[in-house]
Amino acid sequence: MNAVEIRGLTRTFPGKRKGAPPVRALREVDLAVPEGTVHGLLGPNGAGKTTLCRVLSTVLLPTAGTASVLGHDVVTATAAVKRSIGIVFGGDKGLYGRLNARQNLRFWAAMYGLSGRGLGSRVDRLLDRVGLTDRADHRVDTYSRGMKQRLHLARGLVADPRVLILDEPTSGMDPVAAHEFRDLVAGLRADGRTVLLTTHDMVEAEAVCDRVTLIDRGGVLASGEPATIGRLISHYERIEVDAMPEGLVDAVRAVPGVISTSTTGISTLIETENGAATAEVLGLLVAAGATSLRTGRPSLEEVYLRLVGGRGMVVG
Amino acid sequence: MPRTVLAAFRFQAALAWRTPDTLSVFVTAPLFTVVFLALSQFAGRTDLATHAVLAPCLMSLWAVALFLAGDLIGNERSWGTLEGLVATPVSFPLLVTARITTVTVLGLLTFAESWLVAAGLFGIVLDVAHPLVFGAGMLLSALAMAGTATSLSAVFVLTPSARTVQNTLSYPIYLLSGVMVPISFLPDWVQPLSRLVFLSWSGDLLRTSLDPAPTGNVLPELGAVALLGVAGYLLGAALTRRFVRRARELGNLSHT
After folding, report:
1. Which of A186, A278, B195, B197 is 20 to 30 Å from A295 by CA-CA measure?
2. Residue B87 and residue B81: Cα distance in Å, rounded?
3. For residues B248 and B254, what is the distance between their CA atoms, to the nearest angstrom?
4. 190-249 in B: which are within 8 Å (CB) of A?
């Protein structure tokens, strides 16, 4: 069963100025996230990732198309959807800064129907899980961005949801906390939870996601497993070598199965069409004294940059 | 539902404690008591002492509810918490009403302040002659205020110039409801309008409870306060649901 199923989802916002044309934040998006998996939504600012999360969390109505969570339609069965999901919108906002972390979590837990001892112990466990126990009774507006982000995570988990929607969950976290976050997501998957997360961090996406979807200008560019999505931009195996010994380029090109070579700075990229060619090229390089070598298919980051990188810093 | 209400109560009390301006009525109520009692004594109308002591409490109820109602949804939106609240399974209108009820119940404590000021500074000790009527009147007034403020909260968030509306709804209501001046002093054509404001019935009820004379049948007054409070809540709940639906359509539950 798919935990999240989206068909032809379109969301249009009215233009901000009078007479301005409407803005299409999502255009006919199709997406399916199987239950118990971690799915990454990757895309630049303004790509439509947050809009998609908002539609799924019922706080934004779609203009066209359908979206459902655990079989419940986000428009017609909002109550059932709300009971099934946890949301982390992230950022500096979304928490009560004048209250402490414990008061925040107790309130949010009560909003999901928790009460009594169950509520107290759940809040304590979550504070411990996100490493905020020692600061639980300090006002949230004294927290760093990373600490607020951890509290956001705890808030998203407070109702023990079957589906968790995380919008930029590690934004502002230090590397250690981000690493712990990956462990936390792995634990959620092991528990059978479904996680849909948006991120800019390709390393994070490769580390925690079973599948990723690249999204830009409101449309889906590609979907696949992080390890194999590189095939979208290259079907070939690749060898990257730094400071390639002089005179070796022609020898490499002569190896049967070598498709291309290109040099940028000190780095040379060699593409081969099969493992035998790769092995022969590696043999040549090692014999010639090359010591800095990398092999594999294009990384997720390369795919991302190839598909959406042409936009530079342009948003939307 | 009771658990949600209790959680909202605890939450709003904690928030109010950290937001002292919410409870500024605890500073103004004793001052109003001094002003009203001094005026009534100067005019030789010591018979109006009950009015003078009750007025600051009823004014505080209105002020504290109006203050929170005007800011509640707007604050949630600017804090970025409105989306999160709307995404929870709890009824949003119920949550709004429960939170406003918290401050109106706290606002009732201003009566104790006024009573102490009257006794300490003016030597006027008001006996609560009919404690049951007094207790019921106070509780119902706080709930009716919360119900009424729920509709005001929705009106404020749906009105472009909410702050102006909010600022103009204090003293006209104090006058209209007979809190500051007995309704009988108002022009004839205004008096029926006064009866549409629950505070006018609350004032009558509470003054009756402080009067040593037999109360007679107070059910009409109690019923009027309850009815107007429920009407305010139902209108507020409908308007709040409409606001949420509209905001989900427009995508402006948050400022981002």
Report:
1. A186
2. 10
3. 10
4. 248-249
